[in-house]
Structures are given as C-alpha cells and as structure tokens.
Write a structure and sequence with these properties.
This is Putative ABC-type transport system, periplasmic component/surface lipoprotein. By secondary structure, the protein is of the alpha/beta class. The protein has 10 helices and 18 strands. The protein has 2 domains: 193 residues, 3-Layer(aba) Sandwich (Rossmann fold); 179 residues, Response regulator (Rossmann fold).
Length: 396
C-alpha cells in the first residue's frame, strides 16, 4: 500500500487517498517550470558497482513491513521521468506485497525544500529512501549524515556515503537503437533533437543517436536545439517546430514532456519519444520510444534491505539489466528495421557491440576513438563534443 504525500511548504499535508492529479502536460505556452539542474553532471559516475557493506537499514519489528520513501521532482502524470520511477515503485510493491509499504512525495523542488522532505521521511520511520533527481544529491548526503541507520539511494548522482548509494541508466544504448529507426525512416536525411542541458548524459545521447542513424544512413545529419530546461512544454514545442521547419522529418528529445511528439503529429512527421511510450500523443508520428524501467532495481534493493544485506552500490544499468527498453514499434516501421534494431539490442545485451566503439571522429574531423577501441565509462561520462553527423557547436 502506498501513501501519497503532496509537498507544500512546511507544514506538510499528508494525503493517503489518491486525489485528482494536475494535468501532466499543459498546452504549449503554459507557464510551468520543472527543474533546472536535475542531472547537471555525470562526470564521476563509475559503471562498476562499489560494494561497501553497510547494513544501514534499522531492523524492522517482527511482522512489520519495511517503510520505503520516494521523492519526486514533478507530478507523476501519465508519461515522463517521474512517471517511470513511479511505475517502478508500484512494481516493487506488487512483488513484495505485505513486506513493504511506500510513501511518495511529488513535485518537490531541489535544494532546501528537498532536504526538509527527505528529513521528514527519515524521521517518520522510512528506513529505505529513494531520491530521484540529480539536484537531490547534496540534500540526500546531508540528511544521511544525521540518520546513519537509514539507507538512501540517489538517482543519477555520483556522491556516496556510508549509507548512500547511487543508481543510473545507460540511456545512450537506447539512443543508438532509436537512431537506427530514425536513419531508416527519414527521407530528408535530417533528424531534429530537442535537448535540455549540454551535460555528458545528454551529449552522449545525441552522439549515440547520430551514430545509430549513420550506421544505416551515412548521409544522415542531426540538428540540435537546446531549451535549457528539463521540462518546459512551451519551449520544447517551439524547438521541435523549429527543427521541423529546418527539414527534420524525424524528431526526438531529451526533455520530459510530450511536446516534441505532439509537434511531430501536428506537422505530419515522425517522432521517437523518450522516457515513456507516448504513442497516444502522436498516434501517427510515434515510431517507438527509449524507456527506462526501475521496477526490478527497486524490488532487488528493497529485498536486500529486508534481508539485512543492503550495501552501498553505484550501478549503471542498461539493456543487459532490463532497465533500458524500447517501446513497441508502430506499424509504420518496416519489419526489416524492427529486426535490425532487435538484433543490435541483443548484441548490446550480450556485450558483442558497444555504441561507442571506434573509429569515432568529432564533427570537426578530429579522431576521438581509434578503430577497434571502445570508450571507457569514465571517459564517456566526460563527453564534451559532437560526433560526425551532428551539426553545430556544443555550447560551453
């Protein structure tokens, strides 16, 4: 059973019955701001798990379920970043029915507000807490110091402590597959990419997408428009419209609303969505989507806490771990394209293929990765250039 806690400036207002949620995707032009720095850097993220044993979860009383808290940066809605994490929470509750209870708090701003919410969860007996936005990193670390018997897991960050681990997804793997689809479906040889912030996570996604396109269409080009926001439907729509007007007949996005898909539907071009299957927002435009799925991770982590085996880890999970998945293909995607994507996906899962194996040149012709070499994770998480096929210069 889950309890919903709606965040308001202190005092908090608890609501365990699910009330109506605000509209998740306002019309373009509405004044809604999500967050500005959820995942501003991934430079120090390591792919290998760091296994520091620390049974931080306090022992539950016999017969009592483990109380688990989730902190969300936006409304859950019906698609997007927070929606995917909440799907994972529900899967965890179902898998561990009777063993756990969870409370989630929506629309918590990063910074001091987040610290108060995280602290309240710890004070109210939640012995396992997931904080799901980059900007929650320092507040999580600070609260963890005051609650050494509570275990914390922070999404997309890099700082750890004796009772704080991190977790993230290899989004770039799905981006490469999406690029294959775009490369085969584009007639103009131009794809448009609506991007949030020029940080490694976003840049590696753009580059993986471009490499996927060029693997099947050597003439393919990717145009990028930066909106400097993770969630701003108005800006996202304007960016997508601009890209379409510049000749992009396939658009994708590293932002959180459905605006790019809606723009593609309105302009009768194709779209590859991100985070969630957004086909209902573009029934004709939507080809597939790169999705991230957290249920198995949340279930595994909660079970470890129940068993007294929770430990600090930093997993960077992808297709192999079933975290990155492609949404179903639309009928517009030919079977041979679907088959190629599925084969490449299987090769990534088996470790036979990596989207960033050389030769790789940047878009100014400089060799970045030699033939036969593969970018290591540390270098990948510092990526600060565009590969061949991406137009323009990366903002600094």
């Amino acid at each position: 059973m889950a309890c919903r806690l709606a965040y308001n400036p202190p005092p908090f207002r608890s609501r365990c019955a699910a009330p109506l949620r605000p509209a998740p995707h306002p019309l373009p032009g509405d004044s809604m701001t999500r967050m500005q720095h959820r995942r501003t850097t991934l430079a120090a993220l390591a792919a290998a798990a760091v296994a520091v044993s620390f049974p931080a979860v306090a022992q539950q009383k016999a017969g009592e379920p483990l109380k688990i808290g989730f902190v969300y940066v936006s409304p859950i809605g019906d698609a997007g970043w927070t929606f995917q994490h909440d799907v994972g929470r529900k899967e965890m509750e179902q898998a561990l029915a009777g063993k756990v209870t969870s409370k989630y708090i929506e629309s918590v701003p990063e910074g001091a507000d987040a610290e108060r919410v995280i602290r309240e969860l710890a004070q109210s007996g939640h012995n396992l807490i997931f904080t799901t936005s980059f900007g929650y990193m320092n507040p999580t670390i600070k609260v963890a110091q005051a609650f050494p018997k509570v275990s914390f897991n922070h999404a997309t960050g890099y700082k750890t402590a004796k009772n704080v681990g991190t977790y993230n997804a290899r989004f770039y793997e799905g981006r490469y597959l999406a690029g294959i689809v775009a490369g085969r479906m584009s007639k103009s040889n131009v794809a448009g990419y609506v991007a949030a912030f020029p940080i490694p996570e976003v840049v590696m996604g753009i580059n993986a997408f471009a490499r996927g396109m060029r693997s099947v269409n050597p003439k393919a080009e990717v145009k990028v428009v930066w909106v400097n926001s993770w969630y701003d439907p108005g800006r996202e729509r304007e960016a997508a419209d601009t890209l379409i007007s510049q000749g992009s007949d396939v658009v994708t996005h590293h932002t959180d609303s459905t605006a790019a898909v809606q723009a593609a539907e309105a302009k009768k071009v194709y779209a590859v969505a991100y985070h969630s299957d957004m086909s209902k927002y573009g029934p004709n435009a939507h080809l597939t989507a790169v999705t991230h799925n957290w249920g198995e991770y949340y279930t595994r982590t909660a079970q470890a806490a129940l068993d007294g085996k929770w430990k600090v880890e930093q997993p960077w999970m992808g297709i192999k771990e079933n975290v990155i998945r492609m949404a179903p293909f639309s009928k517009a995607v030919p079977q041979d394209v679907q088959d190629l994507v599925k084969k490449t996906e299987a090769d990534i899962k088996a470790g036979k293929f990596h989207p960033f194996t050389g030769p790789i040149k940047d878009n100014e012709g400089k060799e970045r990765v030699a033939a036969g070499k593969t970018i290591d994770d540390a270098t990948l998480n510092k990526m600060d250039y565009y590969v061949e096929g991406v137009q323009g210069k990366l903002p600094k």
